[in-house]
Amino acid sequence: MTAPTVDVHAHLLLSEVDKLVEGMPGWRAARELDARRNGAEALAVSGAMVGGRLPLLTEVTRRLAAMDTAGVDVQLVSPSPSHYHYWADPEVAQAVWETANTATAKHCAHAPERLIGLGVVPLQHPELAVQALDHALSEGLAGVELSSHAPARELSDPAYEPFWELAAETGAVLFLHPFGCTLDERLDRWYLSNSVGQPAENAVALSHLIFSGVFDRHPGLKLVAAHGGGYLPTHAGRADHAWRVRPDARGCAREPSHYLRHLWFDSLVHDPRVLRELVRVAGADRVLLGSDFPFDMGTTDPLAALRAAGLPEADFHAVRGGNAAALLNLSTKE
To answer: Could you give the domains of the chain?
Structure first.
């Protein structure tokens, strides 16, 4: 039996969401914060880049053609993180998640054997996260995408406990994908907001989840970390040392590195040596193919990037699609 090649990190732009929020109270301030965090030069480059790739982000036929070229059978499609809108009040937040979830499901329904969708949840309103996840699952989505934090809230916040509980009970896939880094203007040049900010945010968010005991209380969570989990997997030794020598770091039952083998990570680390190390510390059964389709910080040939790591054949095929097929309950081919 051969598993399909599955890309778990692919994005979708939703004009319906953009039209919904434009001009609302809080929208402009959020855009101004994003501009400060990224800098004018990065925004200009990103605007042109996204404009040139808009068909890939919105048109199913173009997406499928690009998948064929890359040798990808199935994509796990998540809305662009720009659609989180964690500034929104409860009423607007509900409109955002309902619109995003429904539009994503509609996009994927054009090719249901090849496209699997994820929705969004309002992390700024933990009391509504369960309702949003329920809605995503009712739309036929596999789970939801979430950022590394919400304003004034970390993922370790006890208010998220009902959300984690429902996600574990339902087997919903949670895709951790940061949007924006709280280092703000320190990263507003040379696109440090992404090259440094994204892996830093991944590491901080995962550390909050691990050290706070979320995975001890909810061992069935299916959480996939984008960008190979950022800095944490390859620097977990320092976290382990803190856990061993400092009583204030003992929020989790086991050494932090233990939990790496209970998470999933995409393969998008841009360095074959780092990918090999990720496979070593997390396990070959916990790494999934990821491309960040179709953005410029991704790869147009995720399989070539995976081959460059020189993994054993069985590990290569596990990362190529076997692990994702098991995670997403996909059928294999003869």
So the answer is: 7-328 (3.20.20.140)
